[in-house]
TrEMBL record:
GO terms for molecular function: sarcosine oxidase activity. GO terms for biological process: tetrahydrofolate metabolic process. It holds the Pfam family SoxD. InterPro entries: SoxD, SoxD_sf. Coiled coil: none annotated. This is Sarcosine oxidase subunit delta.
Amino acid sequence: MLTLKCPYCGVQAEETELHAGGEAHLTRFGPDSSDDDFETYLFTRENPKGVHFERWRHSHGCGKWFHAARCTMTLEVFGTYPAQTTEPPQDIRDAITAKRPGWTWREFS
């Protein structure tokens, strides 16, 4: 079972206490955006075999959204951090690089 630590209240929550919210670090487009930008936002998602950044909500706890870095193959969690963060903290990137030497952070659009 997947267990994530909420960065706000500090609780180690099982996935049954959380609600998945999809890929993290996406640029959201408003009503005045082009059709192409909005289509990309709606339908273009990463689906990696390996390290992935996701949004989660501590729905049966503090109710706040946060981001998690984890491996989709092994369910290994590299860390969690507040949803207002625009990119993963350096310590999480270092933890990923230590276990996955060829991994690099990509710029999100």
